[in-house]
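dumping this here before i forget
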Amino acid sequence: MEPAVEQLGSLPRSCVDNPSNPWNSDDVMPDAPAPVLLTGATGFVGRHVAVALQAAGFEVRAASRDPQASRRHSPELDWVRCDLTEPAQVRQALEGTRAAIYLYHGLGSGPAYDRREASCASTFRQMAEAAGVERIAYLGGIRPHGPASRHLSSRLETGRILRDGRIPTVELRAAMVIGHSSQSFALVRDIAFRLPMVALPPWLDRRSCPVSITDVAAALALALRVPLEHSAWFELPGPDCLSHRELVDRLCSAVGARLLEPRLPLTPRLASTLLAAISRVRGAVTRELVEGLMHDLLPEGPSFWSLFGTPTLRSVPEAIADALADELSPVSPSVESRRRIWATTRSWLGALEAGHGF
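structure:
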């Protein structure tokens, strides 16, 4: 368990690390010609965060193991070669940057993915320190109300590794991110669309606060701007807390399907085997995601949103509608998602710079 909340300046001590780390908490990080390195830029979250960073006035340097192929897909970004397992490439990619967004996620990359995630995080922290980076923002996972699965444990460990360094780091902890191409949302979507009449296991009654990719993207860009004296972690909940079963039911309602009410005592292994057979998500990833659903994923620590008041977040029905609409788009993010992320980021940034809440 992490320590109880104790106020340290404007931040709860429970989320603050490295109290000797010097950082001017009176200054909001201004626009600067130095670019922001975006790791994971080709992934689901990274593609959306790139839009938010541009809306916030940052020049984006997008990291990819194959920058030539990535450039064909997103020619508007400045692509650099960066394999996180190669320290020299990481150091070169970070050269001249002032801040970085860390989004590497090794789930599905092999049986030792958790060790790979820890190694990559350590390498990135060391190379960022050597390059003189001033801020890191990282999207991690929420701490469950019970034993953490290997997947969630690895997300938390990655955050700890990054926060243990000399660079002020903001770790944002989210449960499910709702959006087209989100693997966890795709799993729930496939249950609703392909198994609506199959009785679901009782552990789907566990609760979480899923959050829209629109709000996640804007929050990560904003994390580079908030006044921060020390490394810190924050919860990033959506506005609606509900069970996974209720989320499936909301998806069923969106397409006119009906969810069967009886519960079947399926073990996680049996459930993941069944879901792997019908889902677009790879079997190995499905098993890890199912293990992470065995306990409530509810926020207990300081909320990122509370630093500035209470912003207007996308509701679960709105986020579901956004994700389903984006499935029809030939590009990702869709034109409408880009507009929504841009408007949200600009609105929240304007409130921050004006010195008052959302």
